[in-house]
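Q: I'm writing up a methods section and want to include an example of the input and output format. Could you take the sequence below and give the corresponding predicted structure tokens, formatted cleanly so I can copy it straight into the document?
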Amino acid sequence: MAKTVFAVLSISKPEILGPKIQQLYPNDSLKISHNEWLIAAESTSQILSKELGVLEEGAGTALIVALSGYFGRMPTTVWEWIKLKWGSE
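A: Here is the clean output for your methods example:
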């Protein structure tokens, strides 16, 4: 199964969600701001939410979106990470 890239936007408790992302996805996550991450995973938004504790474990409110395309203005490292992880096995 190919990996999907997800955008994770922590609304209320990034100090809790950030370490959890690093623990579960140390090689497949990229922090892009104090409360935003990209995660590459063979998963769904719902499963990822549960794994990160957004639904039951008090990781605060967050929005997790599977990306189907991308465009914008970000540092080169972000574009390189997306290109590397997009659809990887």
